[in-house]
Amino acid sequence: MKKLAWQIHASLGMTSDDEVNYLCFTYDPRVATNLGTAFTDELLTSFTRKKEVYYAIQWDEKKGDFSLNVPGVLDALRRFASQKNPVRILGFPAHLYKVIKDHDVHLTMPLDSWIQTGGGWKGFVNEEVPKHQFRHFMATRLGIPESNNRDMFGMVEHGIPYCDCSRGNLHVPNYARVFIRSPRGLKILPQGETGLIHFMCSYVTSYPSISLLTTDYGRLGSCDCGLGGATLEIIGRAGVQKHKGCALTASKLLE
């Protein structure tokens, strides 16, 4: 699975031999060893050589819980901006956006820096910033080109990463198949129509999850960026109840 993820990111130009500083808006994996986001960040930081990795959501001994270390994040941003090494910012977009906006951050990150968000805006749907607006905002505040600002969608149960191309569209890799089904009767819908997302992948054999019908609405499309495969647009939750997970738990840290 790690090699599979590396191949997908390499095809998108996101692997490098550079020594990179990482700012991760996720849980410190030294403590949160059982969370899916901790594993994801360990994976995403393996696509380059690492200089420093700073995890923004840290364990607070006094509270007995995780908390977002905002002063530490601001310090890391300034420190990384003053160095020559490229910077990669990973994790929940709501955390990154709120820190940059609330503290009026204006910095210029080194050349070949990247942002790769994941986990969505769960818990902050009313404050969600459209992807194109988010990319432009970060470009003006951190000097990271919009083409180097990528979002990723994934599910622990599925194991395949769906990553943005340079134009901000999620592409379906050849390791998986994605179908859009009608919520009534589960008929497969044509490209462009919205329905329940059905993932299939023959690589997940450690538990019975080769075929996964989700509770997310989405639709398939196309992109002229030059990459193969259909694009996948995530519309949102189809259910009426919240599903607990890493991202939903982390969103509480901003309340």
Structure description:
The chain is of the alpha/beta class and 255 residues long. The protein has one domain: Rossmann fold (3-Layer(aba) Sandwich), CATH 3.40.50.12780. It has helices at 2-11, 36-44, 70-81, 93-102, 131-142, 246-251; strands at residues 19-27, 49-60, 65-68, 87-91, 114-118, 149-153, 162-163, 177-181, 195-200, 211-221, 231-237. A 7-stranded mixed β-sheet has the order 3-2-1-4-5-6-7, with helices on both faces. The chain has a 4-stranded antiparallel β-sheet with strand order 8-9-10-11, with no helix packed on it.
In short:
This protein is an alpha/beta fold and 255 residues long. The protein has 6 helices and 11 strands.
pLDDT averaged over residues: 88
Query: Can you list the strand order of the major beta sheet?
Result: 3-2-1-4-5-6-7
CATH architecture call = 3-Layer(aba) Sandwich
Structural class: alpha/beta
Shape: globular
Q: Please, what is the CATH homologous superfamily?
A: ANL, N-terminal domain
Give the low-confidence spans: none
Largest sheet: 7 strands, mixed
The CATH top-level class label? Alpha Beta
Number of helices, where a helix is a run of at least 4 consecutive DSSP H or I residues: 6
Q: End-to-end distance, in Å?
A: 35 Å
